From TrEMBL:
Protein name listed in UniProt: Amino acid ABC transporter permease
Function, in words: Part of the binding-protein-dependent transport system for glutamine; probably responsible for the translocation of the substrate across the membrane.
Entries under CDD domains matching the protein: TM_PBP2
Subcellular location: Cell inner membrane; Cell membrane
InterPro entries: AA_ABC_transptr_permease_3TM, ArtM/GltK/GlnP/TcyL/YhdX-like, MetI-like, MetI-like_sf
Keywords associated with the record: Amino-acid transport, Cell membrane, Membrane, Transmembrane, Transmembrane helix, Transport
Lineage, top ranks: Bacteria, Pseudomonadati, Pseudomonadota, Alphaproteobacteria, Hyphomicrobiales
Length: 221
């Protein structure tokens, strides 16, 4: 048992690795600050595009969304980071991660938001238009807020997945939190830094998970 604690819960090694892991945490939060807002904005655009009058446009968009959802984010990240240089475009690790995660999450956010828009009764559209609002104003000020509220638990759940997804950035040597913890592990030959990173992830995400559970329970009543 003592060997187990020394290998996974060594407080001395954790304290020494903490500054390095906190530096990685800054990068993790930076990725989230870039990817989450862009993903939600992209999701709104995808949801709006799914309502296009052109059947060809809708099918093309549906195909693109299916492709982004079917491709593992890790594969998408490697393709963008390693493939684009062959086309003469070399991206920084942060840019490659941001683009890959944006494409992946915009597809998921888009499906969630589309479901939210479809949940808003047609009467809301008609009532807003009867007050003199244009179609775009009706969507932005009346329909979209209701749609986002209706699917809020799903949006938050997807956001939690985005935070966990940032750990994949280590593949392109972007020094996010897991990458930093793994560096400390390789230097100390001890798994305690990785456990410390896991604890930080838990502390960040557990309150959000509890909020999602409460929202889901409230909507089920």
């Amino acid at each position: 048992m003592d060997i187990l604690f020394q290998q996974f819960f060594n407080l001395d090694i954790m304290s020494k690795a903490l500054p390095l892991i906190l530096e990685g945490l800054k990068t993790t939060l930076l990725i989230c600050l870039v990817v989450i807002p862009l993903g939600i904005l992209g999701g709104i655009l995808v949801a709006v595009g799914s309502m296009a009058k052109s059947a060809v446009a809708r099918r093309a968009l549906a195909l693109a969304v299916d492709l982004m959802r079917a491709l593992p984010p890790l594969v998408l990240l490697i393709l963008i980071y390693s493939g684009l240089p062959f086309l003469g475009l070399r991206l920084s690790p942060l840019a490659a991660v941001s683009i890959a995660f944006f494409l992946n999450n915009a597809a998921y956010y888009g499906e969630v938001i589309r479901a939210g828009i479809e949940s808003v009764p047609n009467g809301q559209w008609e009532a807003a238009r009867s007050t003199g609002l244009r179609a775009d104003q009706t969507f932005v000020w009346v329909v979209l807020p209701q749609a986002l509220r209706n699917v809020l638990p799903d949006l938050i759940s997807n956001t939690v997945e985005v935070v966990k997804l940032t750990s994949l950035a280590s593949v392109v040597s972007l020094q996010e939190m897991l990458y930093s913890a793994d560096m400390a592990r390789s230097l100390t030959f001890n798994n305690s830094p990785v456990v410390l990173a896991a604890i930080i992830y838990f502390v960040m995400l557990w309150p959000v998970v509890r909020i999602v559970s409460r929202l889901e329970n409230a909507s089920a009543k």
